[in-house]
# Entry
Amino acid sequence: MEQLNKLVAGYHDLMDNKSDQRVAGPKFMENRKPFELQQVLIWYNLIQVIFSIWLFNESLMSGWFTTNSFRCQPVDYSRSPIAMRVSNT
# Structure
């Protein structure tokens, strides 16, 4: 526990006392309008959701709810379409 406390104290010392004090962000944005990122973030989130849905669907359809089970079973080393789809996901 003492080593963990030393580690945390060292981290706080590094972040509070030894970090770079010349922070550029506030100076850079001092006389500027805020960036308009709402549309960018909406499109980014939409792309992430679509990709996540596709990845989830692919993992389900590649075997977990069709031919494979969650229990131990032998590995299929054949070149069948199902085996190739499972190996690609």
Q: What stands out?
A: The longest helix spans residues 38-64. Residues 2-88 form one domain. The helical segments are 2-16, 24-28, 38-64, 81-88. The chain has a mean pLDDT of 84.
